[in-house]
Write a structure and sequence with these properties.
With 58 residues, the protein is mostly helical. The chain is built from 3 helices and no strands. It is 66% helix and 0% strand.
């Protein structure tokens, strides 16, 4: 499997693992949306520092 595809699958898994901490599930959800090309992803459920970092990189 190509690396970008593998990364996408891994963040999808992170979002779906019910035993993972909720914050990591939410990060997985956000990263999945970004990698899928969604432009206006809701970052409000992430810690402010994480949201700012993501905004600065997208």
């Amino acid at each position: 499997m190509r690396k970008p595809v593998r990364s996408f699958v891994e963040v999808q898994k992170m979002a779906a693992v019910s035993s993972a901490p909720k914050i990591l599930q939410e990060l997985g959800r956000v990263l999945t949306q970004i990698m899928a090309g969604v432009k206006d992803v809701d970052l409000s459920s992430l810690p402010r520092e994480w949201a700012e970092l993501i905004k600065s990189q997208t």
